[in-house]
């Protein structure tokens, strides 16, 4: 992650490189890597004269197929416009963007995350979209002010929310039924631990407490206790004892036998919903985002029934929140910013487009689109809208965007959690190291070193 942050910083001092695009029509819409992508002209046109827009996103097979289809629809409606798709899993996505940033070679349209948008803006890598709203090219009239504001930094608009999201725990109802356990719409942390022990005792199925998910559950855990992971003075929020208690969740679960063996994650990706441990029975639950539900159901074995509830917290209202699932942003080095903005407007406001997407990235930010697609949604998508609506009625404000250095914090949490689970560090030792190293990482980013 240090390499990632350094690469982002390098992007503002390195000279501009040429954009990359598709060398032939066969590669348009393909999943390409930076290493094998041929250069295109300064006008970002391919040999046929088409304008080629590079579009990057992270996702799963469901998202990839739906996005590919709507981009082809856009090309059919707008002759002379084609796309180069650059797709990665979440973890590798940011390493690739960092490398592209260092070479001044970011894609035209970037799927951006709330955690990282501030860092990209501070390095001058994203385009202010305010002028395109003012001239009518980008229509945000059907988005709530709070939704629009979530993409603003310093009063300027750098990201367009492409879906509303909420923390969601998917659990294997077949297993909980076999254990004689009923779970409602919410689950407390105390009950989660109690049920995990009981399920393991009765069925032999362990639990994965967001292993390898970085700060995702830690931030929720701290909100539950009335704390924030980051303060506004360039350091960690909370107390060292809070982090010790968090690591102790894993320490106790491993010692008592009810946590998934960390060795299982050598062969199972912790960032791919299709490979999640819940599908193979290596965990009775998984801590994910609501917009991952459809992909999870797509990978569900036929013999299992899944259900959903909140993430575990003893004070649900204080811990829970809704957030932009992702933003769409335009890179500041795009040669065709107006066309990139038109594509974002299409994804945001086109009913035909959203008849295909059907809220896969989250509940549509446009109220008109959300209302239009609801009758067309399947059972899984309807469940997500109902779930996010319930969360929005019983939650607290979203924490500010993560500061510079948060990527390294994520890696540090994963590394220390792994050491605790393998028994090479105690919870107290991990907390002390996290508090010391975490504050040093954030201070470096806060001071601009």
UniProtKB/TrEMBL annotation:
Pfam families cross-referenced by the UniProt entry: SBP_bac_1
PANTHER family with a match to the protein in the record: ABC TRANSPORTER SUBSTRATE-BINDING PROTEIN YESO-RELATED, ARABINOSE-BINDING PROTEIN-RELATED
Keywords: Signal
Source species: Enterocloster bolteae (strain ATCC BAA-613 / DSM 15670 / CCUG 46953 / JCM 12243 / WAL 16351) (Clostridium bolteae)
Signal as UniProt keyword: yes
Range of residues in the leader sequence: 1-21
This protein's name: Carbohydrate ABC transporter substrate-binding protein
């Amino acid at each position: 992650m240090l390499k990632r942050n350094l690469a982002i910083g390098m992007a503002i001092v390195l000279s501009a490189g040429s954009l990359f695009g598709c060398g032939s029509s066969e590669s348009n819409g393909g999943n390409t890597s930076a290493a094998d992508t041929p250069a295109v002209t300064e006008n970002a046109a391919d040999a046929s004269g088409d304008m080629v827009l590079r579009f990057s996103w992270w996702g799963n097979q469901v998202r990839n197929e739906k996005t590919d289809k709507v981009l082809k629809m856009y090309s059919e409606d707008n002759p002379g416009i084609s796309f180069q798709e650059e797709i990665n899993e979440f973890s590798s996505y940011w390493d690739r963007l960092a490398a592209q940033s260092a070479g001044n070679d970011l894609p035209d349209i970037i799927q951006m995350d709330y955690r990282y948008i501030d860092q990209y803006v501070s390095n001058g890598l994203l385009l202010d979209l305010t002028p395109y709203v003012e001239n009518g090219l980008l229509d945000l009239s059907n988005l709530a002010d709070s939704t629009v504001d979530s993409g603003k930094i310093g009063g300027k608009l750098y990201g367009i929310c492409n879906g509303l999201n909420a923390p969601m725990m998917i659990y294997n109802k077949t297993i909980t039924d076999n254990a004689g356990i009923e779970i409602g719409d919410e689950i407390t942390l105390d009950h989660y631990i109690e049920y995990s022990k009981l399920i393991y005792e009765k069925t032999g199925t362990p639990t994965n407490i967001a292993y390898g998910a970085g700060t995702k559950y830690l931030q929720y855990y701290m909100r539950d206790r009335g704390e924030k992971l980051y303060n506004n003075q360039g350091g960690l929020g909370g107390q060292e004892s809070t982090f010790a208690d968090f690591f102790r969740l894993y320490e106790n679960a491993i010692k008592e036998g009810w946590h998934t063996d960390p060795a299982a994650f050598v062969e199972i990706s912790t960032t791919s919903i299709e490979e999640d441990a819940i599908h193979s029975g290596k965990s009775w639950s998984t801590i994910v985002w609501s917009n991952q539900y459809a992909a999870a159901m797509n990978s569900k074995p036929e013999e299992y029934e899944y259900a959903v509830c909140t993430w575990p917290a003893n004070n649900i209202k204080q811990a829970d929140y809704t957030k932009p699932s992702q933003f769409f942003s335009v890179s500041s080095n795009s040669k065709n910013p107006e066309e990139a903005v038109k594509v974002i407007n299409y994804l945001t406001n086109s009913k035909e487009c959203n008849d295909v997407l059907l809220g896969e990235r989250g509940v549509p930010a446009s109220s008109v689109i959300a209302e239009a697609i609801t009758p067309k949604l399947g059972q899984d998508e309807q469940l997500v809208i109902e779930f996010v609506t319930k969360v929005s009625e019983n939650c607290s404000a979203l924490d500010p965007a993560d500061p510079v250095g948060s990527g390294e914090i994520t890696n540090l949490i994963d590394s220390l959690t792994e050491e605790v689970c393998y028994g090479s560090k105690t919870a107290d030792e991990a907390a002390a190291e996290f508090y010391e190293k975490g504050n040093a990482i954030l201070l470096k980013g806060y001071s601009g070193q």
